[in-house]
Amino acid sequence: MFAHPKVFRIGGMGGAGGGLTGEAMPSGFAALDAELAGGGWQRPGLTEILCNHVGIGELSLLLRGLGAGSSDVRPGHPNESMHVLWVIPQGQAWVPYAPALAQHGVNLEHLAIVRARNTEDALWAAEQGLKSGTCRAVLLRLNETGCNPLSLRRLQQAAAAGNSLMWLLRPLDAAASPSPAGTRIVLQPAEAGTLRLELIKRRGLPQGKSLRLAARTLACLAREAKPVRATLSNGQAARWLDRMMGNPVPLTEPVTAGVRERAFTRERG
Question: Which CATH architecture is the domain 16-221 placed in?
Fold first, then answer.
């Protein structure tokens, strides 16, 4: 029996890596790819990353996908390269750090950044980029928990129409609301710079899988702690002791070298 290649068949899945059409873009983390339907980020497709924190390493999960296929050429247009569109909503002051993106293989000549005035404009810009057929990936962060289900459906349909990969970052509370996204991941910081992932939705696979990834190496956590010594005057040590002990009366007695060292040690502790 003939089956259209775009038809998704659960019965044809032999695990996380089978039965899906389209392109699976490796995330760069073997443990995560093993748990994602298709073995990576699905293109076309809509993926939601749900987290309340900025700068915990959430973008480290996406860098491999952002850089993959940087030299892709638009089908039917051999002189046009595919782009990455990054939509930044109002109130988000930071900008993507270009040297880090370039280091991870992102072609900056084909990276477009849009600063939207509001959520409605941000959703519109993302949708236009997806269905244009010129963007292989679109990244959008929304600061609002609530989002019109119709808007999410439009993003999903636009990603399919433009054969694009859509990453949508939303606050953690959005996990309680339904979404057409094929993959939904709750992301939270863990100890020693790691990330805790909860895969609350995987198309064709059981939900609730938990992972812990070292998304980035923090040099400050790997360095061995070393004692720091400093020479303090009697007046400095007296003021520090006074502040640490909560004594409003300045000390008048001479402060010995041993007291100076103990004061500095307590201040650092």
Answer: 3-Layer(aba) Sandwich (3.40)
Terminal alpha carbon distance of the chain:
73
CA distance 44 to 160: 5
> 138 is written with which tokens?
């679109």
- How far is the C-alpha of 236 from the C-alpha of 263, rounded, in Å? 10
pLDDT at 114: 92
Return the number of other C-beta atoms located less than 10 Å from residue 157's C-beta: 16
Contact 13, 26 (CB under 8 A): no
Q: Give ranges for CATH 3.40.50.300 in the chain.
A: 16-221
Element (H, E) at 235: helix 234-245
Q: 142-151, pLDDT tens digit by residue?
A: 887 778 889 9
Q: Which amino acid is at 1?
A: M
Summarize pLDDT for 90-103 with one digit per residue, the tens. 777 667 888 888 88
Residue 3's pLDDT band (boundaries 50, 70, 90)?
A: very low
Closest CA to 187 of 161, 213, 166, 163: 213
